[in-house]
Amino acid sequence: MMIADKKLRGSVLGFSLLLLSILLFSAIALVNVSIIERKSSFSGQKSVIAFQAADSAAERVLKRVYIDNSPSIAAVPLDAEMPEDGTLDELMSNLSSVTGATCTNGNITATNSPTSSSPGYTFQVTFYNSAGSVIACNDSQWRDKAVRIRSEGFYQRTSRVVEIGIRPRS
To answer: How many structural domains are present in the chain?
Structure first.
């Protein structure tokens, strides 16, 4: 009777260990899936913010591109003379809500400072002529040459691009 009792206790111990190991592996697998899902949701959020940065930059630039043709924007009083950005350097200095704006080799780069409703991000806008060449920062004829704008938004290590075809001023 004692021998059967010892075998029974050994098999109960083995069964308990097997059950605990199955539960442990299940818990580890569940934690692993949760971590992967969280990483993918963070990367999705970064992608959205980077796209919003590119889109916002394109919108800001387009307001400056068409400001002298669109008095309805009312960026200045309606009875005042509409300003013109004579060069891309001047356009860059007139962009709203940005810091550290620079124009280098035809690329306007700026940072949007973080606020309570928006995280900080960086964007870069490049103007292209009909030959596909980058328009220089000091080109005073840029409005007559620009046919395409490439706006790239950066947030943390994620970037997204928005390209827009525009009509040169006639």
So the answer is: 1
Residue 97 falls within a domain, yes or no? Answer: yes
Q: Please enumerate in sequence order all residues whose Cβ is within 8 A of that of 139, keeping only pairs 6 or more positions apart, or say none.
A: 87, 88, 145
The yes-or-no verdict on residue 170 having pLDDT over 70 is no
pLDDT the model gives residue 131: 92
The answer as to whether 35 is a domain residue is no
Rounded to the nearest angstrom, the gap between the alpha carbon of residue 82 and the centroid of all alpha carbons in its chain is 32
Residue 139 lies in a domain: yes
Using alpha carbons only, give the angle 160, 164, 170 rounded to the nearest 5 degrees.
155
d(CA 157, CA 32): 23
Q: 155: part of which helix (H) or strand (E)?
A: strand 148-155
pLDDT digits 0-9 by tens, 104-119: 888 888 887 777 666 7
Does the residue 62 lie in any domain? yes
> Coil, helix or strand for 120?
coil
Summarised one tens digit per residue, pLDDT across range 132-167 is: 999 998 988 888 888 899 999 888 888 888 898 887
With CA atoms as reference, report the closest residue to 122 among 133, 111, 130. Answer: 111
Domain that holds residue 144: 46-165
Structure tokens at 123: 């964007």
Compute the distance between CA of residue 90 and CA of residue 98 in angstroms, rounded to an integer.
Answer: 14
Residue type, 83: P
